[in-house]
Amino acid sequence: MAIVVAVIGAATAAIGVVGVATPATLARLAATVWGTQRGTYLAVAARLTFGIVFVLAAPATRFPSIVLAIGIISIVSAVTILILGTGRMRAFVEWFASRSHVFVRAWSVLAAAFGVFLVYAGI
Questions:
Q1: With CB atoms 3.0 to 4.6 Å apart as the test, which of 31, 40, 54, 82 could cross-link to 97 if both were Cys?
Q2: Tens-place pLDDT, residues 32-79
Q3: Domain-by-domain residue ranges, the chain?
C-alpha cells in the first residue's frame, strides 16, 4: 500500500513541475477543473480517497506519523471543502488563478517538494 503513496507523490511532483515550468497553464487548468460544481466534488473525492489511502498506508511508510497526519489533514480538508461549497471553492480558484506567476511558481515548488517527499516516504 505504501507504493500508492509514492504514486500519489509522483503525480503531485509532476503537477508541481508543470506549475514551475508554465504557471499560466496550471492556473488555467485549476480554474477550468476545480472552479465548477463537478470540480468541487472531484476535489472532495480525491482528498477523501488520498486521505484514506494515507491513513491505511502510514504504517508501511518510512515516516508513518507524518503520512498519518497528512491523511487526517486530507480527510478534514475534504469535509471542509464539502461544507464550504462550490461558490467558495470557485472564489478560491479564481483568486489563485489571478495571482502572479511568481506566486504560482512558489506554490508549485512546494508541491513538487511535497510530492518528492511522498515518493521517498512510500518507497
A1: 31
A2: 887 788 988 999 999 999 999 999 999 999 999 999 999 999 999 999
A3: 2-122
Q: How far is CA 76 from CA 37, 79, 108, in A?
A: 19, 5, 22
Q: What is the H or E stretch that residue 60 is in?
A: none
In the chain, alpha helices (H) = 2-21, 23-34, 37-57, 64-97, 101-122
Amino acid residing at 69: A
Round to whole Å and give the CA distance between 3 and 35: 30
**What predicted TM-score, i.e. pTM, was given to this entire model?**
0.89
At residue 71's C-alpha, the angle toward residues 86 and 27, to 5°, is 45
**Whole-angstrom distance, CA of residue 30 vs CA of residue 38:** 13
Helix (H, G, I), strand (E, B) or coil at 61: coil
Residues in the chain: 123
Handedness of CA 83, 87, 88, 94 (dihedral sign): positive
